[in-house]
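The following record pairs a protein chain with its ligand, adenosine-5'-triphosphate.
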Amino acid sequence: MKEIVVRIKDAVKMKEGRRAVNGVCMEVGSGELVAVQGKSGSGKTTLFRLLAGIDKPDAGWVEVLGEPLSELSEEARAVFRRNRLGLLEQRPAFLPELSVMENLALPLWLRGIPKKEREKAIHEAMAAVGAPAILEARPEKLSWAERRLAALARTLAGNPQVLLADEFLGDCPEREGEAMWDSLLDIVRRTGQTLIYFTTDMPLAAQAERCCVLRDGKLTEVTL
Ligand SMILES: Nc1ncnc2c1ncn2[C@@H]1O[C@H](COP(=O)(O)OP(=O)(O)OP(=O)(O)O)[C@@H](O)[C@H]1O
């Protein structure tokens, strides 16, 4: 029996008087690759933010890696997010005055990880995503794909058990996006991490092991 790493029960989140997330229940086991597909406005980002502990639900229960996020303070959720989760967002942010290496080191430094360990983790993560050559570059010199690879490596370097991605490849040039999605699935399968990927893209979602559809804040699992 797989360890359950995400447990959501009857989660509700209100936005402007309506339920942007409306009674969502979901359980995700360790190592599962789950896509949550929904069109624009269906509640993906709202649900992503609940799972990441950025927001708290107005009702219901959200638990990730055994931590009851719906019960924790904002500060405790921020610490949890920094130490235990990997977040992949649509437009990865980098500090322009720092090199890629320095950008990747920053979250590890915030976690108090010593320099030698930081560098080892970053080199391993960059090797895993297959882009070690970009470490000394400035972020503005990176191509679309390199920027995503650097963001992915930044996340992997922290060795999180759970990765949450919100339209991470949403604005991609088509072919690059497909290749990147394949390597993301490949890497996550190798590391045994759990991935929950929010997307509008149905064909892409269909390639995950499990696919859920979000419509008007309600989540249903689909068999493809
Ligand atoms: N900050 C906000 N203030 C007001 N309404 C909001 C806010 N954030 C989301 N909403 C509303 O909540 C609903 C769900 O929005 P959400 O951003 O979660 O959807 P989404 O599926 O992520 O959409 P997209 O793919 O366009 O990002 C929408 O009706 C949206 O208008």
